[in-house]
Amino acid sequence: MKYVFKKISVWIMVCTMLLSLTGCSLFDSKAKVYSRYVTSLLDINYKNISKDYSTLTGVSQKDAEAVYVANMDYQAHNLMNYYGVKEVDDGTILSEFYYLAQSIFANAKYEVTDVKHNKDTDTYTLELTVYPLDTLETVYDEIVQYIETFNAHVEEGDYNNTTEVDYETEFAEGIIEILKNTTASPGYMDPVVLEIPIQPSDDYYFINDEDFLSIDKNILYIREDPSSADDTEGTDSEEESEDTTTSEYEFEQTGETDEQITSTELSISSTEAAQ
Predict the structure, then answer these.
(1) Which alpha helices (DSSP H) does 119-251 contain, by range?
(2) Which of 69, 79, 174, 183 is 20–30 Å from 108 (CA)?
(3) Does the predicted model carry a pTM greater than 0.85?
């Protein structure tokens, strides 16, 4: 049986979610309204707080909550890709990562700290301060150790007669258990200040995809170049299973995109778990 060891992948998002394009009608007190709009946009995406977003945009509560569901599904897939978890069961693993994403991003922290008005062009730029969650960073070493231990069991042949579903499920549950322990007491990295221009369009305004992605990138701190990449790599080993009734699986983490997550094509690249 051929095994490819697990490892943490680089977190890459190359397309944005079109969750920021629902604009709001222009009316008085623009600076205050723009600030409310951006805050409410983030609140619905990460915390499922829909009242202010619905009030400002005019969308129904049901449609507003659909934005939240789409984002949590997106974040769940990101987490799975980052840790090299494959969706091989009836959706149970994805569901667990979905609930985990809810717990993590409920602690998202951000605030509009300034609104700048260019009187010459009558344009507005928001200064948004984001406090990146340190959830994944806090448990980074623990998860690296877990993956190394898991890989050692693979090398010893402990999973030779294990189905792919059981193999992936056991690995995923170990990752989830470690992350769950951090969500009750969230911590934050150093704040990041972003300049978010408001984009006016006739009687409406919005923030563009690029700026929304910039915010999303800073909500949860992710190591750009995981140091464990070299530590957890292993060479493929060919194992013969004594139980000839057990199917032989090639446990390989691919770099393929899972599926279309939101209304626009979403491509999440994941480094292969072993070359």
Answers:
(1) 135-138, 140-155, 164-183, 209-219, 228-231
(2) 174
(3) no
